[in-house]
Amino acid sequence: MPALFAHGIGAGLPTGFEGRIFKRQGSGVEVANAVAHFATFALPEEVGDFGGGAVNLMGNDDVFAVLFEYGPDSLGTRLFAHQGLPRNLATSDFQPHVLRRGLTGQSGTQWFFTEAGRPFTLYAVLGSHARRSMLVPKVNRLLGGLAVEPAPAPIVAGAPWN
Predict the structure, then answer these.
(1) Is residue 157 assigned to a domain?
(2) How many angstroms separate the first and last alpha carbons of the chain?
(3) 130-139 mean pLDDT
């Protein structure tokens, strides 16, 4: 399994997947958080955080998944109360109306959770809702290879080195 690791996120990629883990450039006071994209098709150079520019390229047998980190101010909120990355999704977890941008025939799911003290959302898209019984196991294989480390302690200016 090819492995990726960046920004405290690790991914053992199942056969047929590619991925990238990065941080977008923050602007001003905005903090850049980690984003990870995974797909069973070639990811284009420019992809929106939640798949804009990629999901429209999916075939019926493809899956696309995003692990998107939110800021520490989200910790402890009701939305991120679920502890742990979902690892075993069911076909019933995927519905066409969940898609951020509804494309005919596709299906999606979204989960908010906290893993290793970090708030995330998992957003996954299936190329075909009708073929979800074949596609959800692909997503679950991907999820089984993901790992999140706790965020490093923030650097405080003027703090003494130990």
Answers:
(1) no
(2) 38
(3) 97
